[in-house]
Protein: Tryptophan--tRNA ligase
Amino acid sequence: PTGFRVLTGDRPTGNLHLGHYFGSLLNRVRLQDAGVETMVLVADYQVITDRDGVGPIRERVLSLVADYLAVGIDPDRSTIFTHSAVPALNQLMLPFLSVVTDAELRRNPTVKSEMEATGDRPMSGLMLTYPVHQAADILFCKANLVPVGKDQLPHLEQARVVARRFDERYGRAGDAPVFPRPEALLSEAASVLGTDGQKMSKSRGNAIELGMDADTTARLLKRAVTDADRHITYDPVGRPEVSNLVQLTAMASGRDPHDVAREIGDGGGAALKRAATEAVNEMLAPVRARRAELVADEGHLLAVLRAGNERARAVADATLDEVRAAMQM
Ligand code: ADP
Ligand code: NA
Structure:
């Protein structure tokens, strides 16, 4: 009822972790709770854009849905759906591909860096057209607000260009535009760092996953990188590793990082790690308990997806009808 429709989502490429939690999941739940209509895309087809031997995707999809529900995404208010269950999403690709040029696709930063990374090896057509897939993901539901990090801005710009060109080419004088021009909801949050001091990532082995148990969390945090100075301070530029643990403790307990650092004082890295472990485990305990119940009930997860897929299909079919009508098909 706010007039906003948000599109968010993830590729089912691994378990969600604290980087996702603080970097995007909390924000999604906040938007949902503020009454913003939220579409949550499990981008299963996107997995094959840059990985060919990923193995069974279905299990990863259910695990992702369990993560979503466990952190408070409410399937009655938010639409959780998979790309592969919404054929109209792919059907929108054809008209969208017709309004972009190969040159602008090659200029897209993600495509460009992939071309550089592949060098002389071939790059798939799916990778080249990746920005158009994202445009379809956003425009199929007429999302007008898309939470993104800075690196995603060019994709959003491509979606705006597709929307504009489609209306320029097919709109008739006096008709309302078929598509909104989606706006970015730019995330200000800094990256959450992992136990090695690098950006917490699905693939780097440095992540505290939402579904991990408390002992594993303690073990990982015990191995976290710190430095030789026993006096704990919060100084993200000068002492990134120590400050990351301070920050993690602060975020997990809803406190100010300077207060956390002051309290630990001369306790050193060991005390800091204990504080971080306690705060993270306490914050995640209810999430983990819910998650454990959810993964034990596959039937429920499948039912959530079925309902979300049905809603998403209805939305996508309605958009495709409008697109065909505009194209006089
Ligand atoms: P993919 O493999 O599909 O690129 P990622 O797991 O790398 O997915 O990230 C998806 C999104 O989750 C990012 O765009 C960002 O918003 C958020 N995210 C991931 N890792 C972090 C992190 N360490 N700190 C903050 N946000 C993160
Ligand atoms: Na990534």
Observations:
- Residues 115 and 122 are 9 Å apart (CA to CA).
